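Case study B.
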Amino acid sequence: MFAATSFSLNPFQDVQAMLAYDFMRNAFIAGGCIAAAAGLVGYFVVLRNQVFTTDALGHVAFTGGMGGLLVGLNLLVGVFGSCVAVALAIGSLGGRGRGRDVAIGTVFAWVLGLGLLFLSIFTSSHSASAGNTGISVLFGSILGMQPAQALIASGAGLLTCIALLVIARPLLFVSLDPEVATSRGVPIRVLTVLFLILVAITVAESVQAVGALLVFALMVTPAAVAQNLTTSPYTGMVLSAAVAVLAVWLGLTLAFYIAYPASFFITALAFGSFIVSLGINRVHRKAASA
Amino acid sequence: MADSPTWDLLADLQLLLRFHFMQNAFIVGTLVALLAGMVGYFVVLRGQSFAAHMLSQVGFPGAAAAVFLHLPPVIGLAAFCSAAALGVGLLGRRLDAGNRMESAVVGSILAFSLGLGLLFFRLYTGSAQAVYAFLFGTILGISDRDVAATVVTTAVCLVALAAIARPLVFASVDPDVAEARGVPVRAIAIAFLLVAALAVAVTVQIVGTLLIFALLVAPGACALQLTARPARGLALTVVFSLLFTWTGLAVAYFTIYPVGFFITTLAFAAYVLIRGAKALSREQAAHAELESEPA
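Model:
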């Protein structure tokens, strides 16, 4: 894609060359903010065993985005709106959005099917290039971000980070020991719903970076890496965010020099770091038991 | 499509089967419905719907790689799905959404394999339509080669399933007793996962990677709501899945909208209706019991 700039052995010069482009600067800033939020929120997602809520929200994001486009709204409005609405629904049902996986699976297959219908209506009523809109929602389009989008994404990412850090202590308490937390008067219900809304916003942001189908790569894999490497929650949160940010930044750098999709590099880097963390975990455990 | 349906069903059917691609779609659709129905019944019975979901997403890069190498996509799908099934089977873990770390691991693998699939498609053409076809299914792209591959795969799977059916039911319903009676539970589990992998591979052709639940899980879930008897349940599952597939294909032909949407909608509607009817009849039964009791 950007074959005009080729790789040199001077890293300083390479970074300068890369950041000379507006879209690369946007992608780095927005991607970094999104990844930090995804890593932080994702740590709690894995801790609270809500991986499938994330999966479900990713599906909803696709349908919401396409539906938003169809009725003439902004894609982002549809993605954010549908994610938050569904998160509120899950929260008000009181469950953690998992359990009977047959029922959930059937519902979300239908939700995706509905998204497909919206996509085909949208594609047939617009020009042929509209077909790529669906792909960019499914697989992300971090290099195609407009400056305004990048600004919104960065702001939303930062706000999510701040909100999560504010509720981190009680949320940790509730996640690890709900009974004791209730008896101590921690407002579990409020925290659960607040957290679900944060998850929804993070999923909606991540959809722009890596796409609805690859949300796991930013929200679950870095958290899994962190849990493999440390049991301390605060170190884990920082580590999770750091892995996510690094995966995005390195992925963007690779995509700049090699003309393959950035989403692929990001998922591959996240997955690679997960494999490495698994190995480190094994070695540690063996050393501890020896 | 240019054709519009009339009230004359026979004429509609003739219209529907006039084109070669629709004939292919119906042949493959029927085989898929048969196989996915039978396998899906056991998937639901064994609580492995999550594993089916995982197998189908792992199949996506397989399909993409096959297209890239100019092979029929079914072959790539079958290869990747079987490899994943063997991996899951040999790890010997039951994949479910319950375990925290396990779901994180599976989630990571899913994201990576979908990312890989995206890469293969970019390497090949970058055409959006090709990606959609594999994610959501299509009725247009089924070639004679695909039909042949589907016939062979379905035959192999059905024979294998028939061979292990009895011990499989036993091992699914009561694994502990089955093991005590000397049924090779582990080997049967792996064999079943392999059959499921092949079933996923052929089903992807019709409903795509993302909507596999509609044919592999929903019919079985509907049937298990209605009856607990294995033979009747299997028959019902196949009836449901044939119904979803045929109706979905027919409606998709007469409208411009994708087949995946209609099949998932039918599956979802059937599931909701059956759950609702069951809840209603249970309520009535409880009511009748209350009234018949002497005060």
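Chain A touches chain B through 54 residues (CB under 8 Å). The remaining cases will be described in the next quarterly update.
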